[in-house]
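One-letter codes give the sequence; backbone shape is given numerically. An example follows:

. . .
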Amino acid sequence: MELETAAHQLEALGNPNRLQIYRTLVRAGRAGLAVGQVQEQVGLPASTLSHHLKRLIDRGLVRQDRAGNSLICHAEYPAMSALLGFLADECCADETCGPSSDRAPEKVAG
């Protein structure tokens, strides 16, 4: 994943409303949720929800499919995995081979 793509996706998720919408869709699973169901769960006005969904769609984090008269929103799990991988891939890559930082500091006798 490119740095610019990751930055745009993280910026989109940096808004509390968009993060709540995204988490709702991630929890919904692969079946997704109709826009009305998302609105019920997050409690946003339709126009505000539409604005936030558009931003998430533009950043590749959400997609919408039409099912009859309904729009079904889905979290884009491959995009989520790529973003999480981008953040974790180089975890501790520059760390020296010293003692593990997971351990509690040793007490100094005094």
